[in-house]
Recover the amino acids of this structure.
């Protein structure tokens, strides 16, 4: 892959040396964004090392808007470059512009949201348009926003659908890339609903991303074109 790199116009400190490693190696560079525990981040890191993303992607940075996010410490322990910028008390557009500029220093091909608890403004979305992915623990056509497992549990749904989608300026409204059904029959607690759902999330996210990378051989323009839903044969 010869990705189109975002322009490097900002004056952040030079990131750790790992940043240089991926340039020219043909692997897609991932910036994984989280705000909490980071179990999806761990699954993606492992997939890049030994799983569905091996040889296709590398983790350029794990970023958080919460410097104390447990997932950030986990990422560092896994050997990932990490960065954070506190969002608390910051106007949304100003924070998002600063976060986007910081991330551009890591030259990501994809921004991979993994429990990143922020609604993104155009200041963040536009620099990475078509290259931001999210995982949502429900069918985004049926449920948007927080508490999707609670929604499934409270409504005693027999199944839910984990969704990987591209991010646009709406709340969980972007084009769907992949979905997988989770059987919730007999799940008698919220913890059990989450356990079953997360097991699917951890596997689906890497597979969907791998399929997108394989389908997308160029930079941002081609990635925008790649927004048709993946078919079963893709993943
Ligand atoms: C996951 O359920 C994900 O689908 C949602 O936020 C949660 C993050 O969990 N967007 P984790 O931090 O990856 O464990």
């Amino acid at each position: 892959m010869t990705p189109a790199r975002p322009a490097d116009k900002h004056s952040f400190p030079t990131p750790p040396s790992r940043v240089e490693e991926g340039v020219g190696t043909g692997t897609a560079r991932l910036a994984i964004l989280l705000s909490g525990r980071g179990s999806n981040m761990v699954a993606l890191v492992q997939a890049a090392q030994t799983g569905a993303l091996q040889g296709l992607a590398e983790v350029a940075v794990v970023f958080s808007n919460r410097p104390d996010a447990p997932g950030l410490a986990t990422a560092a322990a896994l050997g990932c470059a990490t960065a954070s910028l506190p969002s608390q008390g910051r106007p949304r557009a100003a924070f998002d512009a600063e976060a986007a500029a910081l991330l551009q220093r890591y030259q990501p091909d994809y921004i991979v949201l993994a429990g990143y608890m922020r609604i993104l403004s155009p200041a963040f979305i536009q620099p990475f348009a078509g290259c931001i992915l999210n995982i949502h623990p429900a069918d985004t056509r049926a449920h948007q926003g927080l508490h999707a497992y609670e929604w499934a549990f409270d409504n005693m749904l027999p199944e839910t659908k984990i969704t990987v989608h591209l991010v646009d300026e709406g709340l969980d409204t972007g084009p769907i890339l992949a979905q997988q059904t989770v059987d919730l029959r007999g799940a008698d607690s919220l913890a059990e609903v989450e356990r079953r759902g997360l097991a699917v999330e951890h596997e689906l996210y890497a597979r969907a991303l791998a399929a997108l990378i394989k389908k997308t051989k160029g930079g941002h323009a081609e990635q925008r074109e790649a927004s048709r839903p993946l078919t079963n044969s893709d993943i």
User: Anything to note?
Assistant: Helices lie at 18-21, 39-50, 70-77, 92-104, 122-125, 148-154, 190-215, 220-225. Strands lie at 28-34, 57-64, 82-84, 110-113, 132-136, 159-166, 176-183. Residues 65 and 86 are 5 Å apart (CA to CA).
